[in-house]
Amino acid sequence: MTAADPHIAEFHNHIDGEARPARGGGLLDSVDPSTGRVWARVPDSGAADVDDAVAAARAAFPAWRSTPPARRADLLRAWSAAVLAHADDLAAIESRDNGRVLKETRGGDVPGGALNIRYNAELADKVTGDTVHLGGATVASTRYEPFGVVGVIIPWNAPLAMFFAKVSGALAAGNTVVVKPAEQACCSVLAACGLLAEAGLPPGAVNVVSGTGPVAGEALVDHPGVARLHFTGSTATGRRVTRHAAAGLKNVSLELGGKSPNIVFDDADLDAATAGVAGGIFTGGAGQACVAGSRVLIQEGVFEEFTRRLRAHAAALRVGDPRDPSTDMGPLAFAGQYDKVRAYLELGPREGAEILFGGRTGREVVGADPALAGGYWVEPTLMAATDNRLRVCQEEIFGPVAVALPFRTEDEAYAIANDTVYGLAGGAWTRSLDRAHRAVAAIDAGTVWINTYRRIHWAVPFGGRKHSGDRPSNGAEGLREWLTLKAAWIEVGAPPAPPRPTEGGAG
Ligand code: NAI
Ligand code: MG
């Protein structure tokens, strides 16, 4: 098959308001993970394409920053409306490209993304500073300003949701943006760029360049025209990006991986806990979620009962075509991730974990449908372990594979929960209000859910600790991620006062 094959879609970069191929003409295959076949091609961009995108963003910045915030808000609201109007198409592209089920993409990510854009639109004209009265004729004030061009690197598990959230925040704050989506699944984001002009956003305000991490991603991180970076993805790549950014003394905000504990106490509503634990690791993104509840800590008195219920719940899940609206769980997003998860399925038993249910992969999972035979299927799987130091208990697997760990006391549960380099999220299931508050305080993570799980909302700050990232996005504070603080000193009296060494400080 060639690039001109009419059955294979071709997507373009979005630079300065135009759809453009990579300058070098290179293309990368995008595979439909439910079939294992190439369905689209995307630009394999290089440093020259990133240069073009940064130049367009720099050119657009002065006018965008001086656009009145209320006008920026209007344009973002128009973008939100355009996304909603095209929700069916965008969700279908994403479900095809990364295997995320329509229930998630059409049911959550795209409409939620539109509401996230609108939320950030509403924040655009509410950025205020402080006034500091220093006595006499001197007034100091603070103002939050955009950085300039921000570089945003996003992963493949929920590209549209991340694109809408990050770009709308950066734009609301007055920045212009260059996005490098993941090479494994970026068709939905490239397709969504057509809506930017429809909404009236100026050319160059948002640019998207597809390509590999080491080439296009690093070119963006290293680019001297980029003032600030946001990275979502693996902890290993986050470390690499941070090292590169340090050379240019650029700040990176990081949203990284996790190995989140989901704790089932013996006083929990076991029906609710079963659905919540399954929703945290199996359904939706097939466990390919940064907040996946991948360690299920179960109090010993309900261990048998709870794992039995979870097995029955998992058996009833519909695994198959992600574009069928009734499907609960799709395939893994691409071959590399499929290989990684299968390797952990082999590793677990070798290091002493026992597979309690699941464990099958490939065509066995989806049965008779020949169209799906080549897809990257992994069954909902639960392993039992007694030692949290096993690699399957410590490393992010990023698939529908959870580890069940028994515990006796509440303190023991928190000790196991926090015995990880990660600190993204955690959950606890209990009917005790006292214990709920203790769990919130005890779990060392950026988000703790009680009697619910895997809830992310644009109005609630979200971020990690330890190796899971740093400052939170979302919520009113989330906008600060895209703003830099300036202090202004204004002497209102005449004649100007001489500098006063008694004011202290140095500089
Ligand atoms: P990754 O972190 O390497 O990829 C994320 C993004 O970073 C992609 O856009 C990629 O092209 C870009 N990138 C890669 N190398 C780069 C570099 N040197 N400079 C700049 N950008 C670069 O993740 P990958 O390799 O796709 O997945 C591996 C594992 O990472 C997964 O199995 C999972 O455990 C974890 N992961 C976690 C995510 C999360 O949200 N917590 C999201 C995606 C992956
Ligand atoms: Mg794909």
From TrEMBL:
<dbReference type="InterPro" id="IPR016161">
    <property type="entry name" value="Ald_DH/histidinol_DH"/>
</dbReference>
<dbReference type="InterPro" id="IPR029510">
    <property type="entry name" value="Ald_DH_CS_GLU"/>
</dbReference>
<dbReference type="InterPro" id="IPR016163">
    <property type="entry name" value="Ald_DH_C"/>
</dbReference>
<feature type="domain" description="Aldehyde dehydrogenase">
    <location>
        <begin position="28"/>
        <end position="487"/>
    </location>
</feature>
<protein>
    <submittedName>
        <fullName>Aldehyde dehydrogenase family protein</fullName>
    </submittedName>
</protein>
<feature type="active site">
    <location>
        <position position="255"/>
    </location>
</feature>
<comment type="similarity">
    <text>Belongs to the aldehyde dehydrogenase family.</text>
</comment>
<dbReference type="InterPro" id="IPR016162">
    <property type="entry name" value="Ald_DH_N"/>
</dbReference>
<keyword id="KW-0560">Oxidoreductase</keyword>
<dbReference type="InterPro" id="IPR015590">
    <property type="entry name" value="Aldehyde_DH_dom"/>
</dbReference>
<dbReference type="Pfam" id="PF00171">
    <property type="entry name" value="Aldedh"/>
</dbReference>
